Amino acid sequence: MIIEEYYTRLDGSESLTALDLVEPDVSFLIALPGTEVTGTGHAALRDYIEGRPAVGRRHTVLRRSVDGDLEMVYGIITEGDGRGTGSFSSVALISADERVARYQAFFHPSFGMFPLPGGGR
Asked: pLDDT (tens digit, 9 = 90+) per residue, 43-52?
């Protein structure tokens, strides 16, 4: 799955390699508590990635699904100490070139489908 590999790269030591998996004109929405980040293109997504605080977070995918050119994942965010800080769901429309063409992600710190590890909410 492209979106799962995107998160693996995003969480790795060279997070900008995640951009190799998205179309140059990618459109995205990242919904966080109290704010939404939207944009189009590598530059806008790079700005978002570079602007995230370096806290050692990891996206752990717990469920995944593919329906044609649509990929969906659900998971939890954990910090470096293993403590869960919230859940996320993401959907990506995959292009004919097998890159993310459109992407939307939703994160919530307290509501999730499964309990968070390490005493998280």
From this structure: 999 999 999 8
Nearest by Cα to 102 from 54, 53, 46, 40: 40
Report which of 75, 85, 45, 61 is spatially closest to residue 4, judged by C-alpha positions: 61
Q: Is the dihedral of CA 105, 110, 111, 116 positive or negative?
A: positive
**DSSP run (H or E) holding 58:** strand 58-67
Reduced to 3 states (helix: H, G, I; strand: E, B; else coil), residue 48 is helix
pLDDT digits (tens, 9 = 90+) for 97-119: 999 999 999 999 988 998 888 75
**CATH code for position 15:** 3.10.450.50
